[in-house]
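Take a sample.
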Amino acid sequence: METTRQSKVSRLLLKDLSEIFQMESRNLFGGKMISVTTVRISPDLGLAKVYLSIFPSSETEETMKLIKMNTKNVRRILGNKVGKQLRIVPELAFFVDDSLDYIENISNLLS
């Protein structure tokens, strides 16, 4: 169960990471459309699990490799944005959120 502080920090990180991926997508990730769907933060606020939706989904693996290579850059930019609001900028762990593909698959199976 998430505490109030965890949910506030998660929303803050979601908003700021969404802006970072929107602004830096062309430079760092080859212009792919990357959406931050969910951020889950650990109780000690030291680790943030970031779930991403990537379009086109056929290039998900290559894009995730680029994102994992640029994690330090993304964390640095995030630190510049939230440095006055958080004592410690959390470590970032990126995961693919494939729930849209799953929903589409279920919809096709039901049709």
Remarks:
- The domain at 4-96 is CATH 3.30.300.20 (GMP Synthetase; Chain A, domain 3).
